């Protein structure tokens, strides 16, 4: 159960996330804030916590009865990576949202106090207003970048907006025997998860439980959908996207081994661009990738320019820093071993591990 109205300082308190009125206030604050993201919405951080057995929390600072600062949080426990307080869980964004009247120093002090209270030795703030480095806080820059750009005015302009080499791949995909489906029904979800499981195993990553994906789709309602590419009726590529403030963000996607020869991933993202514009979107947010990774270069091939991101990490006094970097020596070996697992074994074990990655 979420904590009741517990004062942490004279100005900062925990929100009762079981109160529909309070949840509505948070949704409204995020919708109005120019730096609000899908990951700040209770539809995200409350949904993922319930689906993974973790705990959702929300710190707010108020003045005159109005919210002036908001920090969404997921308290995540992993037998592999330990305990973590993340803003926000299973997300590439989040962090503190504040207005001009906020005292951000008090909010950072409150989240440190909360982490100690919950025996979480690590805090990760993935964007938003960040604390200065020092006194337990470290800033990490340029390890990741985000990719976003405006959508074109029509279908033909969207194709021509793609750089020449990548455009040739999209044109090849348009000549393949592929069909496109968009929806959120059980058939859409099942097709997506089948593709998603294979894709994650091939990447050497434990797959998230389907309940997590379903919870986000349910939480976002009309602001989420699933686009699936099929070849001869078989799903070969699929992506869950969320929509926020005129932007589409493809988030959980992947393809089977056959997707590469069929150019199904190229077709998937091109069709999503067209679909998002028809929904009224003006921006395609390709999301975060690790600098110089394969995904980083894939997005650059589409004409997206990297925007370096800065994250903040706090480590409790006397605690070791959390290591969840897939490029570290220890984890890279585990990734190689995971890639060799039979798909059925990976699908069975993956959700048990992934629910604690955060």
UniProtKB/TrEMBL annotation:
Q: Which Pfam families match?
A: Acetyltransf_6
Domain named BioF2-like acetyltransferase: residues: 165-300
Gene3D superfamilies in the cross-refs: 3.40.630.30
Q: Which NCBIfam families match?
A: pepcterm_femAB
Q: At the top level of its lineage, which domain of life is listed?
A: Bacteria
For this entry, the protein name equals FemAB
């Amino acid at each position: 159960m979420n904590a009741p109205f517990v004062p942490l300082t004279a100005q900062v308190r925990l929100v009762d996330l079981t109160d529909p009125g309070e949840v509505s206030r948070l949704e409204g604050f995020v919708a109005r804030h120019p730096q609000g993201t899908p990951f700040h919405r209770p539809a995200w951080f409350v949904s993922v916590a319930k689906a993974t057995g973790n705990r959702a929390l929300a710190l707010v600072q108020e003045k005159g009865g109005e919210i002036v600062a908001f920090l969404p949080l997921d308290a995540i426990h992993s037998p592999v990576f330990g305990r973590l307080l993340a803003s926000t869980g299973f997300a590439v964004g989040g962090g503190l949202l504040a207005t001009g009247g906020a005292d951000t120093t008090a909010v950072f002090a409150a989240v440190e106090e909360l982490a100690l209270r919950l025996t979480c030795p690590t805090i990760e703030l993935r964007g938003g207003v960040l604390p200065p480095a020092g006194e337990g806080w470290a800033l990490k820059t340029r390890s990741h970048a985000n990719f976003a750009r405006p959508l074109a005015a029509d279908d033909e302009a969207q194709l021509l907006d793609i750089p020449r080499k990548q455009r040739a791949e999209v044109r090849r995909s348009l000549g393949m025997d592929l069909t496109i489906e968009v929806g959120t029904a059980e058939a859409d979800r099942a097709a997506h998860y089948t593709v998603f499981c294979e894709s994650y195993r091939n990447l050497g990553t434990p797959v998230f439980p389907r309940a997590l994906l379903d919870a986000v789709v349910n939480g976002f309602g009309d602001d989420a959908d699933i686009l699936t590419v099929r070849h001869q009726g078989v799903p070969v590529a699929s992506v869950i996207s969320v929509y926020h403030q005129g932007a589409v963000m493809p988030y959980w996607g992947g393809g089977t081994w056959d997707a590469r020869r069929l150019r199904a991933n190229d077709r998937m993202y091109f069709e999503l661009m067209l679909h998002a514009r028809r929904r009224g979107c003006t921006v395609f947010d390709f999301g975060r990738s690790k600098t110089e990774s394969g995904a980083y270069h894939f997005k650059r091939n589409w004409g997206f320019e990297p925007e370096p991101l800065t994250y903040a990490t706090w480590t409790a006094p006397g605690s070791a820093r959390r290591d969840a970097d897939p490029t570290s020596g220890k984890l890279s070996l585990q990734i190689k071993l995971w890639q060799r697992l039979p798909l059925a074994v990976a699908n069975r074990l993956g959700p048990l591990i992934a629910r604690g990655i955060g």
